Amino acid sequence: MKLSRRTLLAGTTALSLPRTAWAQEKTVRYGIPMTDIPLTTGQPDRGANAYQYTGLTIYDPLIAWELDVSDRPGKMIPGLATEWKVGETDKTLWTFKLRDGVKFHDGSAFDADAVIWNFEKIFNKDAAQFDQRQAAQVRPRLPSMVSYRKTGPMEIEIKTKSVDSLFPYQLLWFLVSSPAQWEKVGRDWGKFALAPSGTGPFKLARLVPRERAELVKNEDHWNPKRMPRVDRIALICAPEDSGRSAALLSGAFDMIDAPGPDMVDRLKQSGARISSNITPHVFNYHPSLLEGSPWTDIRVRKAANLAVDRDAIVKLLNGMVQPAYGEVDRTSPWFGKPAFEIKYSPDAARKLMAEAGYSKANPMKARISIQAGGTNQMVNEAIQEMMKESFIAIDFKPVELEALMTGWRGGAKADMNKDVTATNVTHVTSDPFYAVNRFFASDQVAPVGVNWSNYKNADVDRLVAELQNTFDPAKQDALAAQIHAKAVDDAVMIWIYHDRTPRALSSRIKAYTQAQSWFQDLALVEM
């Protein structure tokens, strides 16, 4: 196995510190599966995975996930907002009381003005601080917001487009950066990216684009539970699975995300620990349902679901994932009771394809956009061979991750997607909004949300409306389950597997809490 020179240099030169400082500091060298460091200005790009790197490290949300538990899914907990409530008479109005005494890294005070300023940077194109890059990342995650205003020095009010009981889940994605620091660096987001200021448990000490970012402990963080256990974390770009794994074996890295499946046994033999957990995150194909797409025939979509041997995919990935039989795992309260059973049944798949007019001599042809390289491409190629046996001939359009995400947000109608009829973006399913509303409600058709396919079902829309008007958690679960069952019965996607998000930890890492979440808290890493 060849270790790339770039990865080796990144690992061994990750810190520009004298050796005396090395001896005094607890420093974690963390190999991340990305070609570039995610955006550091407040709303990270490069997908949801980036929030654990340059999102929840440098910044805080108004509402946070509980990430210090691993034996159950975390709950929503107070972040920069200490409490929130919906209006008694007007259910479209939400009031948020903000946390007093919090300081940004630059020393300026966090308050209601700062929150409003941050909403303006992503919603108001006429605002001086508007930033299209940040807006592109988070605005689609806040589809319910229609207006916001300051109602006191430490209180804000948000109005939603309609009654939406799930709105607080949307704010988990909204992070708050410092207006004062933006002014200090000359009102330039490019300069802000090199010297960002949030309220999070880490500060950015150094950024080398496409190579590394060095995060140092924020001694003044407001939350004692999230006070970092280490002094410094070096995030090092290592996009190749084999390169990351080899760097951990050589001692260049202390922890890595997504070890190469074929390297897991060797890593264990070297003394490394493999940490994984149930993760609300699904690998799928999202087919276009626009006129002219071959996927508009439900028989084809069902056949594609039946053509995939998920157990073989799990084996290919060395047990680091689990089969998906829908958008959420069967153990989820939102799975429901779909009539269509997703399983490996190539004979049934071929029968459906024959009914739809296809055969070995005349297969259905489709092109799918996927992320270039790495484990995803290996899995896609395995699925390609499986589908071929069921008269489904797919080819791929490999693109860089951020281009794939941009195409996903644009929807099937976007010009950039004219040459594909499906996309392969793995995504989070951590709450009812993300698990069902965002992908299956007709009012979430891209670019408002990520109903990429333009799926429309009147029964689903009716249930979504009922869910949004229901504030009882048990009733929310029951309604989400009904929506999910209908989506599975309509085979809206071809679902392959749920992640267990494996990480490899060297013996230098003494403790790491892996939450049942796509988000993780690096403040909890101990050496």
From TrEMBL:
The keyword Translocase does not apply. InterPro entries: Peptide/Ni-bd, SBP_5, SBP_5_dom. Residues 75-444 form the Solute-binding protein family domain. It is found in: Periplasm. Residues 1-23 form the signal peptide. It holds the Pfam family SBP_bac_5. It comes from the Bacteria. Keywords: Signal. Belongs to the bacterial solute-binding protein 5 family. This is ABC transporter substrate-binding protein.
